[in-house]
Specification:
By secondary structure, the chain is mainly alpha-helical. It has 8 helices and 4 strands. The strands form 2 sheets. The chain has a two-stranded antiparallel sheet with strand order 1-4. A hairpin with a 2-residue loop joins strand 2 and strand 3 (about 75). The longest helix is centred in the C-terminal third of the chain and has 40 residues, at about 120-160. About 15% of the residues are buried.
Length: about 200
Amino acid sequence: MNTTTLPGTAALHDTPSAFEADEGHPAHTAEASASKGVSELGPELGVAGFLMLLGALVVFDSIRLGAGWADDGPQSGYFPFYIGLMLLASSGVVLFKALACWMNRATADGGTSLLNRTFVGRDELQLVMAMLVPATLYVVAMGFVGLYVSSVVLIAWFMRRHGRFGWPLSAMVSIGVPLTVFVVFERWFLVPLPKGPIEAMLGF
């Protein structure tokens, strides 16, 4: 039986579509997603390095206190010494795997590198920074202007910037909340909270 093949039919069957090509290479989608955020490699290395340093400090201090077994039982650093060793060993394994992945540029799970896997996306990172930066500035400012003035500015910032509230309501809440805290802690429970030069000028 004579069969004819249309021109280009074999080429269409032999050539994978763009969807199939991308489907067979998960690294492409991983690279695209990682380009929009922070890859997993940096956090893996940072956390593992920090835990290794912490474990080394625990081991060193346990040896200084005494990590052996005395006549009346274990010394003060006996149990912390082994806990520090386990922390040092486990974090060392994580650090070694992250460095090996960085050097090989791929892992065994489908060739997806830690450089390509996304730890946090750009949008999520912006949300975190929108909370972290004002909170950090709040803690730093507390040492200079006290708790109450810092709280007024922080509450007003969040209400105006993220809540989109008007100035009257923002002013009422940002002043009313620290004032309530002042009355409850300073007057009722007699617990002093950090104050700055403005409170000193007012005689508090």
